[in-house]
Amino acid sequence: MRKIRIFEHISLDGVIEHDKNYAYGAWTAPYRTPAGMAMLLEAYGTGFDMLLGRKTYDEFLGYWPNAGDFPMANAINAATKYVATHRPESLKWGPVKDLSDDIIEGVRKLKLTDGPDLVISGSISLTSLLLDAGLIDDVILIVYPVLLGHGKRILSDSFDARKFEFVSTMTTPTGVLLNTYRHIGSLNG
Q1: What's the whole-number mean pLDDT along residues 92-108?
Q2: Burial letters for 96-105: b for 16+ Cβ neighbours within 10 Å, e otherwise?
Q3: Given CB 3.0 to 4.6 Å as the disulfide criterion, which of 27, 52, 116, 161 pairs with 57?
Q4: Which domains, from first to last, does the chain contain?
């Protein structure tokens, strides 16, 4: 059985947005170091596949296939991308498969197969949907020492409260924390 793991680069106030049109653009850039990248690669593991919403898939398509030859780009480009989309015929960057019309059932079946862990990065709607369905195993928050005030948050407004257990933390030389939490269940259950 595969694990589903969420990886999010996040500000202290919960913002995960960092596309080129965002007011603060590449706010994570000043905190990047080779040591931090090594920690992140270790956290991702030696092989993984990805679960992506369509918007995140399209954003990643605009960067990762042409990012160059380095470990993170190579791992993301090699990963099978499972995409929540209504237009599967337009998926070009592979290896790629669509999650079918019933996303929850598609992910449940996928989770039961043999293969590498499934990683989600970005994809706010998909993240919230899979957490609500109890399908997420771990959340890894890459926390930057900044407050951004506004921007896309890690979860949609329709998200129901969940409980987590702290697993571990690592600190980069620039003060970025890699915090790992294990999903326990509903806060009310």
Answers
A1: 92
A2: bebbeeebee
A3: 52
A4: 4-178 (3.40.430.10)
